[in-house]
Amino acid sequence: MEIKDPAGRWLGKSVEYPARYSPEVLVAVPRADNREICGIPSDNAFFSGYDCWHCYEAGFLTEKGVPVTGILKLVYPADSACIVESKSLKLYLGSFNMHALGETACEGSAGFERQVAADLSRLLDTNVRASFHRHQAEHRPFDFGNYTVLEEMAGMEEVGFSVYREEPALLLDSVRTTPGEVFAGSHLLKSNCKVTRQPDWGSIYIRLKADTLPAPESLLRYIVSFRNENHFHEEICELVYKRLFDIFRPEILSVTCLYTRRGGIDICPCRANCPEGLPSCLPDPAVLTLPSFRQ
What we know:
By secondary structure, the chain is α+β, with helices and mostly antiparallel strands. It has helices at about 30-40, 85-95, 105-125, 215-225, 235-250; strands at about 30, 50-60, 65-75, 80-85, 130-135, 150, 175, 180-190, 200-210, 215, 250-260, 265-270. The protein has an eight-stranded mixed beta sheet, covered by helices on one side.
């Protein structure tokens, strides 16, 4: 396994892009430290899921010197010991900008996918799947079309907000004691990078089936309470999951965060307590889904 540096080897620093293909710039960050702080079990049975990355600044040259560009989608499982640090991935992908791959765009694209998947799989010691999309389908799926956007519900504009540090007690402000299932989303998710403190904006989608449920206003207040938290994207998703699981002991729980791209990359983690709770299209690297409102 390559360098593991949770403080960020490159984050927050002025770094030039490598002039040639440079897999050595990649940095792996262990998941374990934050999971231990949050009380997330280490046996990988607490949830299943994936981290899905869309890289919009990806490309290379053919052997004839023709530029090839597209969207690179990466997917790897949540049970990997590490995540790839985002700036290191950006530098790594930039190292392909003048790199020649294949006689044709199709041949080069296949080689690009193989090389990236191999390098990241080796870095993270897991199976990383990569698909390079040079074209977008006319009709793209969206896994969350049936989710209710909380802030758009009637009467929600009257709700007051005053807590901007993660506070699980907000989920208990108003609880519905009849069994049911909610499909709730919000575009008000905002947190900060763990290292640089730069703002991270996104949308969150929660599926929760349990004997008791949070009221919509309570759930939205809780989502907003992350506004001044400093975590990586994956950690935000897992912390929301952990709080909801501990409080409501759900039959089905799924949490997906679709973060706004920054530096040409967006990160979309999803976690669920059962396979059927996971989104069906987002974790498929061969499928480009519709972006959410904040992406």
